[in-house]
Amino acid sequence: MQCPRCMNTDQEYFYHGSRGWYCRRCISFGRALIEEEKEAVSLKEIPAGSEEYILQYPLTQAQARIASACAQYVKSGDILLHCACGAGKTEIVVQSIAEALKERKKVCFAIPRRQVVLELRERLAQYFPHARVIAVCGGHTAETDGDLIICTTHQLYRYYQAFDLLILDEPDAFPYKDNAVLHGIAASACRGHRIYLTATPDAELKDMKEKGIITELVLNRRPHGHPLPVPQIHTGFHLFLLIRLVRWTRQHRDHPRMVFVPTIAAAEGLGRFLCLFDKCMICTSRTENRDEVIERFRSCGNGLIVCTSILERGVTVSGTDVAVYNADHAVFDEASLIQIAGRAGRSFQKPDGDVLFLCRTKSSLAEKCRRQLEEANRCAV
Amino acid sequence: MRCLMCGKDLMEGSLTDILIGEDPLCSSCRSQWEKIRWRFRFHGVPVYASYLYNEAFSACLIQYKECCDEALADVFLTEEKNRVKRMYRGWTMIPMPSTPERQKQRGFHHLRGMLACTGLPVLDAFEKTAAGEQKKQDRAGRLKMADAIRLKEDAVLPEKIVLFDDTVTTGSTILGALRCLEGRNIQIRIYAVSVNYRWVRKNRVSLLFKR
């Protein structure tokens, strides 16, 4: 027995109710009966001309090469697009999307986080001015059919066997990572091929690559051609790190600065401490007006923000410098440290950002992260 | 066996889970439910309430009612089974009605399912007249729901009845049922598996003033 929606085969999750067998693993998406013939969701035909696209900047040579390779390979198989943070993953897949739309194929862009969905919809709507680009996520579910659909990975349950091309952005991010239900739902929503976009592929993706199920395309160079910022690592006791951090914030006072901390409590504590020296914002999952705080930080130009790992992905503020306080804490893994380091130096105006890791003990993860970034810089040449 | 809510293996849980293996929920899921066992009166009718309607309880109830997860039927009364059986021996349970469409969609009677483990006699005496989802209504709309309930024409009521509902938020459904039963010579009790704290407080306060 297999659940048609989440692909579960574990017998312990099946339950026989008055309507027959159903799967309890994905029950939060409503009851899916096993014996019921599930029909593929049919979506509207895509009008001609919607595949025309305009990019704000032309692709660099390296980007264009990857983009056309991606558009070609995706016709016959799944792809892992392994690009450094800020290398322009979205722009690279635009060509593949356009070619799929031209063949009247349904395309979906799925992302684990809700906030990124709305941001990405704006961007893709600019790139595809003639297509109807819609966002489907919590709070935006009135309309679920368009020419190009951007949704959270949770919303994929609406589209059984509906997509010919499914682009999964950041599949190594919470909550999609290691979530068997979401993996199953994504698999059942796609009848064609998939593209995974990430800067930090997790063990599962690497394993798939080893087995030859997916083709990997690598791009380690940002469009401005400068190397990725490599973190400086400082180890020491508490007071030393605080002094180091204050000095760092003073040195970079002309740029926006982000200080990442492991816990909400630490964010509040450190935020209050840094307020003594500079105007300081705090952003954690408990902050109620989060969007407003981020917007203020973005517009202010040389602000200082203390945040937890919720801002680790998808948030782009031009010209930021990044520090991680207590980088050896267990909440940070290698992927999240690389993502955090990737916040820096993303703009053309200030392509070399400064990244600082402050550890209380010698951390192999921080070292590993630095080595990976150095390796990526070497490969890019 | 796995916990029905979090999916954790019950044999890997705490010692109580392993030794007193009756509960289909693990102890950490169960501990999020606030057991109150309150008794009070509502319009003169004795009420017994087992739990407070909090986040964990409502999550479980939504999974049972809206996502149609029948496996959860026994979860609600496991702890109260024996007590309820003892309290209402010789009484007939009258569940509050839901609309026929919802009922058909679910494919099972959710309140009968909850009561199945107690073995008490159940009688569907009420029906809902106006359609409309109760949970989507605001407070004023919910209060109007009192008028949307009536006795079935062919219903023969026994002498001792218990009005049974899964959750009481504003009390309007129960109030409507009480109105339908006005003037009849029968004994009435109310059993709500969970109650909204605000509703109880309001009633308790008004009770104090009467005395």
Account of the protein in words:
- The complex is a heterodimer of chains A (381) and B (211).
- Chain A is of the alpha/beta class and 381 residues long.
- The mean pLDDT of chain A is 90.
- In chain A, a hairpin with a 2-residue loop joins β1 and β2.
- In chain A, the strands form 3 sheets. Chain A has a 7-stranded parallel beta sheet, with helices on both faces. Chain A has a 6-stranded parallel beta sheet with strand order 10-15-14-11-13-12, with helices on both faces.
- Chain A starts with 13 loop residues before the first strand and ends with a helix.
- Chain A is built from 10 helices and 15 strands.
- Chain B is α/β, with parallel strands linked by helices and 211 residues long.
- Chain B has one domain: Rossmann fold, CATH 3.40.50.
- Chain B is globular, with a radius of gyration of 17 Å.
- The model of chain B has no long low-confidence stretch (mean pLDDT 86).
Sum up the structure in keywords:
heterodimer, A: 381 residues, alpha/beta, Rossmann fold, 3 domains, six-stranded parallel β-sheet, 32% helix, globular, B: 211 residues, five-stranded mixed β-sheet, two-stranded antiparallel sheet, 33% helix
What is the compact description of this entry?
The complex is a heterodimer of chains A (381) and B (211). Helices cover 32% and strands 20% of the residues of chain A. Chain A has ten helices and 15 strands.
- The percentage helix of chain A is 25-40%
The helix-and-strand class of chain B reads alpha/beta
Computed Rg of chain B: 17 Å
Describe the largest sheet of chain A: 7 strands, parallel
**Averaged pLDDT of chain A, please?**
90
- Helicity range of the residues of chain B? 25-40%
Main sheet characteristics of chain B:
5 strands, mixed
* Run of helices and strands of chain A: EEHEHEHEEEHEHEEHEHEHEEHEH
If helices are DSSP runs of H or I spanning 4 or more residues, what is the number of helices of chain B? 9
Which two chains have the most extensive interface, and how many residues on each? A-B, 14 and 12 residues
Order of helices and strands of chain B: HHEEHHEHHEHEEHEH
User: Segments of chain B where pLDDT lies below 50 for 5+ residues?
Assistant: none
- Regions with little confidence, pLDDT below 50 for 5+ residues of chain A: none
